[in-house]
Amino acid sequence: MAMSASDGRIAVTGANGFVGRAVSRALLARGIAATALVRRGAQVEPGVETRHIDGLESITSDAFAGCDAVIHLAARVHVMGDAAAQKQSASQAQAVLEAYRAANVEGALAAAEAARRAGVTRFVLMSSIKALGESDPGRPFTEDDERRPPDAYGVSKAEAEVRLLEFGSRTGMEIVVVRPPLVYGPGVRANFLAMMNAIARGIPLPLGAIDARRSLVSVDNLASAAIECARHPAAAGRVFHVTDGEDPSVTELARRLGEHLGKPARLVPVPAGVLRGLARVAGKTAQIERLTGNLRVDSRRIRDALGWQAPQSLDEGLAATAAWFRSSR
To answer: Which residues contact 96 (CB under 8 A, 6 or more apart)?
Structure first.
């Protein structure tokens, strides 16, 4: 791997989160000095230097003292549930969007400015494929596709990308944008954990007829890529997609999870159209759309430009996730 000036200490905002803890572990494993920027009371990986902050809106350059690069993971992810989001008024929708913007756009810019004042040269923004859309345009998304975010979270991530890349052009700070699709791995929550729970308990899942293909990235692969983006000189000013390199169908993913869990998935072949109709009644439209639409992501750029290779295959990532799930029960 080519080295850059960002070979020294790396600061990690949101180091107490799912991805943040994986990034911290990966930094420690490589002997890279790591600093966690978190609120008081937050739990971080042992061995990581901790600096407490009151929030991104009031962050100062002192938080980044002695750091050469930042991996910015702190973000607002959820404001309200799916059913509640569908019923909100225009004023409520605007309030939700502003809450996302405050954390994910203004917060990221405040962190970048404080880091710049501290002499940090590289700032890696953890964005999301949602900055582009919820389903692909009939082919895998590339980094150059137009941003068409589907919801307030996606809008905030898209705006953060644009604003930070402009900030880098204006100030000379090296900005790198990383866009993962679905992230999974030991410690995963939300829908992925719910699927594992259902498979492990032998609950029938109506996914046997879903041939939609979805890109994924294991949390360890994402951590590896984020560190590469913080250190490689060719990453500056660029946007990178990160995946495991395989796009399984939803049905295939459930089957492979069942194999690793030692409990064959009970898949019922319910047509996608029927699922969407039931979802509208139950207020779960967004969740079902995520299952029944293709969301494939092209991640060749990071491999070609930086020489990055995913440390884990999809099956290795699923095996590690299943092992964690079994041991935590």
So the answer is: 79, 80, 85, 88, 152
φ, ψ at 121 (rounded to 5°):
-100, -20
Q: Is the pLDDT of residue 301 over 50?
A: yes
**153 given a catalytic annotation:** yes
User: Domain 10-184+216-243+296-311 falls in which CATH fold?
Assistant: Rossmann fold (3.40.50)
Contacts of 273 (CB under 8 A, 6+ apart): none
Domain boundaries defined on the chain? 10-184+216-243+296-311
Instruction: Report the Cα–Cα distance between both ends of the chain, in Å, rounded.
Output: 39
Q: Which of 64, 153, 240, 325 is catalytic?
A: 153
Say how many residues make up the chain: 329
CB 196 within 8 A of CB 189: no
pLDDT tens per residue, range 206-247: 999 999 999 999 999 999 999 999 999 999 999 999 999 999
Residue 217: beta bridge partners?
A: 183
